[in-house]
Amino acid sequence: MIISMTGYSNYKCENNKISFSMELKSVNSKYFESTIKVPKLFSDQENKIMNIIKGNLIRGRVTFNLSYNLKEHKSNVFKLDKAELIKHFNILSEIKKSTKIKEDIRLSDIMSFQDSIISNTSLNDKETLKLLYSGLKKIIDNHSKFRKKEGKVIRKDILDSLKIINKNILKIEKKWNIEKKVYADKFKNKISKVIDNYNLNNNRLYQEVAFILDKRDINEEIVRFKSHIEFFISYIKEYDLLGKRFLFLIQELFREINTIASKSELIDINQLVIEIKTELEKIKEQVYNIL
């Protein structure tokens, strides 16, 4: 199964005390990279949240945002840290004095530090955390569905390109099987004239022809190329986590097709090589986004 590294999901959950809003986004990356944004009141849960996401998404550049709203009266949930309040008020007063700002310090100015001056008394209870992590599981499940759906689109695009590639490599094989006899006859004629001039025997003729044809022969490259295509298709049908395997196969396919291009002097074959490389580039771009 092909799974895309690109995904998006959002989710909301609530009980009679609190509601959570979550957003999970991911794009392709060679490794797992995360940006986890949670309110300070739940900062002690950040590492656990990150590890759960990493265990499920495995690879990609991931962003997770968590926010909440309270349903209970705030006085039942929070308490004021007066020492912190005084400290931040003094900081604002010092800024006002240093910058000669004439405006009075407002409550809204102080409340910009609310995560510091208001502390949680009951938000980390079992009921609240159970709600948080059930929501996290749901958003990850939705995100996985999104990535699998994207993976189906990528799978179709790759298989379409592989069909074109396979069709063209068979054309190359057919053209080469016809043209290699023409090559052999051409080199025989050239070398036989040289051998006649120097009174050399026919064994030398055949050795020289065999040597030249061996340097020009692309049969081995064609066989290996077709084998890599077969592996590609079988992996799509049988395995998960295909991104790194596909990158290796793409490199091998490029190596073989470049060798074919360097050995061939036939315009028809070189044109087919260009078409194959175009499709390989398309696959390569898709593979970078595969888990």
Structure at a glance:
The chain is 65% helix and 14% strand. By secondary structure, it is an alpha+beta fold.
Descriptive labels:
four-stranded mixed sheet, 65% helix, 9 helices, 2 domains, alpha+beta, 6 strands, two-stranded antiparallel sheet, 291 residues
Care to describe what's here?
This protein folds into 2 domains: 7-147, no CATH class; 150-287, no CATH class. Helix content is 65%, strand content 14%. It has 9 helices and 6 strands. The strands form 2 sheets. Strands 1-2-4-3 form a 4-stranded mixed sheet. It has a two-stranded antiparallel ribbon with strand order 5-6. Helix 1 (46-57) runs parallel beside helix 5 (126-197) and helix 8 packs antiparallel against helix 9 (267-287).
Share in β-strands: 5-15%
Q: H/E element string?
A: EEEHEEHHHEHHHHH
> How many helices in DSSP terms?
9
Decide which structural class fits the backbone.
alpha+beta
Order the strands across the largest sheet as they lie in space: 1-2-4-3
Distance between the termini: 10 Å
Oligomer: single chain
Number of strands: 6
